[in-house]
Amino acid sequence: MAEVAGRNTVLKISGDAVAMTGEATTEDVTTKIYQITDTAKQVLDRTATIRVHVQGADETAEDGTTETNIEITGHGLVAGDLIINKTHAGARLVIAKVDANNITVAAITGMTNGDTIETYKTQDSSTYTLNRLSGKATFATASSRVVKISGSYLPMTTAAYAHNATSNRAADVVDVTAYGDTHKKRAVTLLSASGSLSQFDITDTTYSDALSAGVPVVLELSEDGVVEPTRYWVLLESDEVTAAIDGVQDKTVSWVSYDTWLRLGV
User: CB–CB of 93/70 below 8 Å?
Assistant: First the structure.
């Protein structure tokens, strides 16, 4: 048995969504799972459109190219696809397909003919499974790819003044014993999780704001602060402030799982 000091616990909560374009992924060569490389951007917004792009050919921008228009004969791109200007280090989603040879994008300063353009087509969501809690795209077929992801991520911030936390994972177990069985049989049906946290900073409105909005947020709890945290989609149930004459004011927040959770590293 390895004891873990309670002080090593790290608790994080998600903030407001931040847009990202063409984030690099790291490939698991065995499983062909592609995860956003930047660990700060791996929790994806629950409702935002997430685009998974696979690299195609490198092209050369032709004479009609400006800072907002790229001319490539027979480009084959559509709105929502990704281009990366390697010459000027700019990643942009395609705003519109003008014609078979031209696309428009948000301005890239200095872009002109002769620039090298990486092209990435957006994949149909039926060809992969997206895990928004881990920033992973798992493709149905095992084939090596260069994958980039666009959309919005949720920054995770440590609850700096938290000093107490609980979490409980549970399963509903129902009786499925039938006539003729000699022993009771049971089956697991629905899974759930719940917990609470306490923190000394009662002026922090992060939790009360989420409670009032009634929208799911992400909580991340790591027992040792180093490896294998668990992330939960949660709804906040209550936000209570207590004050004792011989103590300090304290805020306790309780939560329940919204639907899924993920044990990272497993």
Answer: no
Whether 32 and 143 have beta carbons less than 8 Å apart is answered as yes
DSSP string, 50-107: -EEEEEEEEEE--TT--SSEEE-TT----TT-EEEETTTTEEEEEEEEEETTEEEES-
Neighbours of 147 (CB within 10 A): 24
So what's the pLDDT on residue 26? 95
Residue 229 tokens, joined = 């945290």
Element (H or E) spanning 12, and its range?
A: strand 10-14
Query: Order of strands, edge to edge, in the sheet holding 102-105?
Result: 69-71, 102-105, 90-99, 82-85, 116-122, 51-60, 147-153, 18-28, 33-36, 136-139, 128-131
The whole-number mean pLDDT for each consecutive block of 10 residues of the chain, a chain of 266 residues, reads: 82 95 92 93 96 97 97 98 96 98 97 98 96 95 91 94 93 97 96 94 89 93 78 95 93 94 78
Q: Which stretch of DSSP H or E encloses residue 232?
A: strand 230-242
pTM for the predicted model, two decimal places: 0.90
In whole angstroms, what is the distance from residue 93 CA to residue 2 CA?
49
